# Entry
Amino acid sequence: MMEAFDPDGIEQAVFVVGERHETLDEPWRAYRRARLIHVSDGVLTVRTDAGRWVVPPGRALWLVANTLHCLHAARPVQLYALYVAMDADTALATAAGAAPLPAQTGALIPDTLVQALLAVAAELPHRHSPDEPGQRLLQVLLDRLATLPATPLGLNWPSDPRARRIADALSENPAQARVLEELAAAAGVTARTAARLFAKETGQTLGQWRQQLRLLAALEHLGAGESVTQVALEVGYSDVSSFIAVFRDAFGDTPARYFR
# Structure
């Protein structure tokens, strides 16, 4: 495990750090820098006040600057973390002709070039400015970020206390079968109001939100090595075939093949 450090205390504008953790419970924190977290092995869960993401191998999460977040991994995880200073006077990202960095937090699919650049950049010193070839490498890496496609590995979290009580209850047990009326009553709100709040604050119906929650929970369980049948039951599917079909529609592959 790397020595703990404050990336905002490093003068270099852009740098990459490689990390390996047997388990990870990084506390809530926010950096003045933007942060790209690429998972090369294991599964990482990232929480912000506004959302949650589950990041499997080969995927990454871009966090805009000053985003309060925490990281969690129940099993070994290998990461590459790219830190980008957003000060216009220092960031490579603002150099003339540079591609714009992503404007919103979200999950991305790094191509093989970006993955290779991250691994090489992690070997560069980050306590002082790299040489010219290192600077060029980092600039290419930043330019490539703007080209990476998004991937649906996240879930918007409602901020209204009533809707959040429902979201938290479902998160604690994604497999529970309580219907909207029961969930709303437990949260002290009518079903109609709960439905309206979820649509307004998450951009999804409660049913859509619940399905995405179950899929993200499934990614965590599959990443821990559990069988497809076991995972389907744990996240609320009694029919394994239905679970596989929903998973494939969302992620483009079957659960058995997704982590290969």
